[in-house]
Amino acid sequence: MGSISGREGTGTVPGPSTGGLRCGGYAPLRDYAVIGDGRTAALVARDGSVDWLGLPDLDSPAVFGAVLDAARGGRFTLAPSVPYRSERRYLPSTNVLETTFRTDTGTVRVTDALTLHDDATLTPMRELLRRVDGLSGSVPVHWSVQPRFGYGARHTRVTRRAGVPVATAGSDALAVCAWDAGEPAWEGDTLSGHFELVSGRHALLAMPFAHQEPLVLPARSECEARLEATCAAWRSWAHDRLYTGRWHQAVMRSLLALKLLVYAPSGAVAAAVTTSLPEEIGGERNWDYRFSWVRDSAFTLAAFLRLGCPAEARAYFWWLMHASQLTHPELNVLYRLDGGHRTPELVLSWEGYRGSGPVRTGNAAVGQVQLDTYGELMQTAWQYALATGRLDADVARRLAELADFVCVTWREPDAGIWEVRSPPRHFTHSKMMCWVALDRAADLAARGLIPGGQVDRWHAGRDAIAGFIENRCFSPDRDGYVRAVGSEDLDAAVLLGHLYGYGGDGHRMEATITTLNRLLRHGPYVDRYSGEDGLVGGEGAFLACSFWLAESLARTGRLPQAVELMEELVGLANDVGLYSEEIDPATGEFLGNLPQGLSHLALISAACAINDASRDTAR
Questions:
Q1: CB distance 382 to 445 below 8 Å
Q2: What is the maximum span of the chain, computed from C-alpha positions, in angstroms?
Q3: ∠ CA 25-27-30 to the nearest 5 degrees?
Q4: Is 341 a residue whose pLDDT tops 80?
Q5: pLDDT tens digits for 527-552?
Q6: Worst-scoring range by mean pLDDT, 20-29, 45-54, 447-456, 581-590?
């Protein structure tokens, strides 16, 4: 467990790796853990403050958004009101967070959970539970709830129902039920309380939420039972997962983090819990990641299948097939969690994390042309078909039509996997993934799983793409595949071509891995690409690229290098095993949205590949 020291409310909470304080009210991003219930998720800082929570769903407007505006975003604080040291962990095999606060006069433990829904009884639509246990001595504790409905844009009305404090805005309502946690009192639209907790006693705070339905006020016994049931449900789910290799703890925590990104009503998997956390402090690279990217689909399905999550794999695949049907044969870069395809990008009035504006909701990348998505979707369908032995007839027909579409469109320039905002180009990775699309379609046809009337055309298209890549996307001077035609820049995304089976000239791909390892890597960190991208400023090192490199090293016989890099990368997680999108190599500071699904997916894929390579070497 990691530990910190501080005083709630003073802004003096050091982070373990950043060496920084709460800066202007903002905790280091590395200080956040996440809890969730399959419908939404919350960020909880090391000092006990819930600084992000969208309600009722993960992609809904935030009720607590202090991570993006410390003054106006709202939060739910809970910590000793005297100086303390804190340490925390997830309860084993769960997504229930436990934070222990140690003071000079005693110790208390806070257990945080978004409770899992019980269909058998009348329960709140969503429910945040915060239990405080006195472990030793006596500790004064302070808490406050500052709801800010609709990103703070909606007027909050405060009242009481049956003596319970309630905040409402339109069709949204939340209550704060407090047992042995002091007498709650409203001051404006902020609710707070104080209490003294002694050893052997415990207090409980429950925040039920309702959207367009009656607000359920739970009894204390029901909340206590739901907390226990939530812990048991997480343990039961984790127990059935299949992974026994190296880095077991990191892989299982990554899988549990991925489970928090699953939107249970549809089966979609969000890229991250948050929006607009910056890739550079003070920069403009701030995007909304509360959608599901086709880019992540093959890694997602592979992780579910490899680690024994058949229900999640099936739900995700059919969500993807439903969502992509709406734009067939073209693919959107991303889709909403409900399968919709419209995600207009808007800018909020919030200042942004540590002044890093703009704060965006929605994502304009949805309108980009990214040809790599066709390879990702076909790879996903291929994996699913091989695992199940069949495809629905309508899905099979659509996949064949998708291959026909790729035969026509692969020659076009696009925005590429990194969603650059510069003019479209002929990106090497995009061409490789178009090759993957046609190669997998041909294989599915050979297995009788999709109609094969156009298979000769697919073979010809695949060979033409390979010729294009080999003739126009390889640089003898770089001794590797370059980022785009006519460029000498490099791109770590070409590693995905290797991982998905693009062969080309085998020597060239191995040489490319060597070149990327030498020129884009700095210690354990790997840059996404070199060259301009149409945006101002820079960014941190993209963690998924480092895991892709580790996996590529293992797959090309460089196992000791792969293991060494993987060990370094596992050590870059925060104290509870989570990763953001990027890390600042100079400071170790987390950057970008979190927890980042692609970072955790890439970890799982690399760990499995290295374990496979280790077994092969041992034979």
A1: no
A2: 77
A3: 170
A4: yes
A5: 999 987 766 667 889 999 999 999 99
A6: 20-29
Encoded amino acid at 26, one letter: Y
Please report where in the chains the tokens 């600084």 appear, as a residue: 51
Pairing type for strands 32-36 and 41-45 reads: antiparallel
Predicted TM-score (pTM) of this structure? 0.95
CA–CA separation, 435 and 66 (whole Å): 45
Cα–Cα distance, 371 to 374 (Å, whole number) = 6
Q: What is the DSSP letter of 357?
A: P
Cα 34 to Cα 46, 89, 545, 584, distances in angstroms: 11, 11, 23, 21
pLDDT value of residue 121:
60
Spatial contact of 134 and 108, defined as CB atoms under 8 Å apart: yes
For 569-619, the DSSP string reads HHTTS-TTS---SEE-TTT--EESSSS-HHHHHHHHHHHHHHHHHHHHHH-
Count of beta carbons in the 10 Å neighbourhood of residue 122:
9
What mean pLDDT, rounded, does the chain reach? 93
Cβ pair 291, 335 in contact under 8 A: yes
Half-sphere exposure at residue 37, Cβ-oriented, CA atoms within 13 angstroms: 25
